[in-house]
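Morning!

This is the sequence you dropped in the shared folder:
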Amino acid sequence: MRFVISENTPFRILDQAMKSERMHHAYLLSGPEGVGKCALALHFAHAILCRSENVDERPCMTCASCRKIGAYAHPDFRFVFPFVSLDAFKKVGKEIGLKEKKGEGDEKGGWETLYMNFQAEAAKSIVSDPFHPSTIDTNFADKNREISIEQIRQITEMVQMPPSESKYMVIIVPDADLMDAAPANAFLKTLEEPPKYVRFLLITSRPNALLPTIRSRCQMLKFNVLPDQDIASFLTTRCDMTPAKANEAASLSIGSLHNAFLVQEMESNEELLEEAFEFINWLADPKLKEGLKLAAKLDSPLSVAKKRIKIVSILLREVSRIQRTGEPGAGSLSQRLRGNASRLPVNVFEKTFSKLMTLNEGIDANVNGRMLNTSFILSLANS
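The structure's back. Tokens below.
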């Protein structure tokens, strides 16, 4: 149930290294979001720890080791992913009655225990399906998440002990760029002189956000966007999407499964889609007064704001394609954008995209949302 493109360069490099047992101690998987980096890391975690005697059959996905990884119960395999602080977890947990839902009242276990259990459940959900949102995205999407110094300390302690069931120990670090200075420097110490049995697989869509010293100690594996036909095939076989809908989502996805899922969501999230079209319509005549009103309306929780940026980027890219070719795609969204394409400047995508990315970076940096939106609108108004 994995989605791994065996023809790509990262796969071939990891496959050859594993079979020859000449693996680097740390790999950095970098590339756009939604192109299979996490799936490939999981595939090779299975392969490295697989007990099949035939190396060409690894991962077999049936041996005890492969099954334990799938259940996130293998003692020599760990996921280290960004999570909220314990204080933020308590606050949200109280709001949604998390203890009551989990059946863990104060008399049965404290927040610290629930916190650790929730992280383990989130890791298991990622291992079982690295493409769709995990349990951490359901209730904590609007909270700042990071890889904490405590998580790094736990991994540092873990790797000091030899593997208990396998020849190797495998640590996967999704969103490895979400470490501030303290955990990054602590992690660097382990990367500089790791035990010979440890293999790290770091994942990021922002490699330049990592410490240069961390990047220099990893072998870089760069991922490209996925072909439309691979995305469409995945959507039809794994997501029960009709071929027509799958082809539309793939054509608008910019080579990313995450974007393809978002295209699918657009048609059912009318409010978010209409907000995106309102902004695109404003770009045809970007007057400041109307833009400032729009900026106030765009003030949203973090997860909604980031999703809106992706939707606008996807739609504007399709506008640009229609302007180049003169023809919209067969899907309903592309057909709807035909009128926008005739009214918008021919360079609107190029002109707007970099500003959208700056807006996204500001959201990641936890800058005030209203101020960010106002600055964004001012940069586009009458320019």
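Headline: Residues 269-380 form a domain with the Zinc Finger, Delta Prime; domain 3 fold (CATH 1.20.272).

More detail when I'm at my desk.
O.
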